[in-house]
Amino acid sequence: MEDSYRHRGLRKRLVQTVKDKGINDEAVLAALMKVPRHFFFDNAFLEHAYQDKAFPIGQGQTISQPYTVAFQTMLLKVKPGSKILEIGTGSGYQACILLELGAKVFTIEYNKVLYEQTRKFLPEIGYRPVFKYGDGSLGWPLHAPYDGIVVTAGAPVVPQTLKEQLTIGGMLVIPIGNTERQRMVKITRLDETEFKTEAFDHFAFVPLLGKEGWRK
Length: 216
Ligand code: SAM
Known about the structure:
Blueprint: H1 5-20, H2 26-34, H3 46-49, E1 55-58, E2 61-63, H4 66-76, E3 83-87, H5 93-100, E4 104-109, H6 112-124, E5 130-133, E6 146-151, H7 160-163, E7 166-177, E8 182-189, E9 195-203
Parallel strand pairs: 3-4, 3-6, 4-5, 6-7
Antiparallel strand pairs: 1-2, 7-8, 8-9
Helix pairs in contact: 1-2, 2-5
The protein binds S-adenosylmethionine (SAM).
């Protein structure tokens, strides 16, 4: 796979677009510049890779819009060494952005075909999160607590189990709403029992399935 001068030029333009839409976290923008998004696209769809749009990745799922990935990542305030759980591996693009920020990334996917594909593909392009197949709406207690949890599918409510898997000071970023439209919500754990909730713009994610999601 080639990351040519032309690809980098297209990516630079995409990063500028994301910046113009309000992403002002330089580390996040630098991570977007580093990950070759066209690697996640079939050659026939190359021109779509550097548009600020979500795109189908098969199995009725999508690679998230770069702005959305940047927005969720910015809210997480990832630092080098942060332990981050991603729910909804999908194409693996968001996991790569988190890895570029120096996070230790744990990622769960509920769709077996996508899980198999991405688990094989990411190491081939040099990215190594810890993968799991299963229902991420329950988190991943084995490796908890996490400094950040990012849910990349729309949930009906905030799963209590995810809140309980945060460190004190840890943040959960999750789109909450119906299956068409969700509000981005950030929950920060203040201490053992107290949490702060902040709400941001609306987005449109595919539904979170599973026990704490819309079920299957
Ligand atoms: N983060 C992905 C990326 O960078 O390409 C985008 C993910 S896509 C918008 C949402 C993903 O969440 C889909 O791959 C879907 O199969 C997955 N998903 C839905 N419910 C899930 C669950 N309960 N646990 C884990 N993954 C789930």
